[in-house]
# Entry
Amino acid sequence: MLCYGCGARESNRRGAVTGLRIILPKNACATVAHRLAALDPKLAVELYEHDAALNILEKIDPQRAGNLDAWLVPHRESEALLAQAHSALDVIVAGAPQAVTLHPAAQSREVWLRYRGLAFARWDDGRVFFGINDANEELTPASRPALKRILHDLEVHRHPLASDTRHSLHRAQPERWLESMVREDITRVDALLDQRFVYAQVLANAGGEHGILDLLTVTRSGRLAIIELKASEHIHLPLQAADYWLRVRRQLQSGEIARYGYFPGVALQQAPPLVYLVAPALRFHPATDDLLNCLSTEMEIVRVGLAESWRRGLPVVMRQ
# Structure
């Protein structure tokens, strides 16, 4: 719909197309209303809700309907979880320190272990559970050999040079694998980014949709930067970026990002965050350009295209 509206606006020079009206079912407009704030103001969009029971069409004020809740997870909570779990998890990480990473989940009070992005174990209140599809087997002296077998299988199949690239362990959760590589060296996305600070899941109620993952980082000069990751083609990538950008900008303006312990020692600029869309170069949806043209000029967006063999080193083949 947005693609059509932008395309019509660009192609119709005589001004016959003056705006776009979006009609949604009753009580279904909150996300759309929120994202309208990130659109180019020149794209005149009106939002309506249709009450099928009463057959009533009501015009909606996006500023009132689009105030979605999203709050920062205090960084100290994540750090405290890692401190509690380290004695139980360090021995597991030591078995594959280049591949295993720890991911605190402050809301559930758990710490997840991921092997090149694939979750295989979790710490919960002093106990460790493991399993590929459902980490529910408790780690005990008797079950430790089973965990070692899982780690061996991951080492064989979830390796950049694995011979069987069709194996389920190799193909599972590609966005998470991509995330692990980007976090390992954020400067592969842009040399201006500060490798010391890369955060995931900083907003408690703004999780990625359709497998799109968000990272928050900062440039060496103190400007916030959002990285959106997708390993396959998806039309939602620019709009998810707009959604996250709006939420992060609000937290920046309120001062909560620094107050909650993120980017210690960095004087954050008040400029709107930069946005990087990172995906294999051939996997950007054909509608991406049209959608980007619909967004506000306040959003500075860079598309970073990777080689199809990105698992073998994250080579950048396109930057726009």
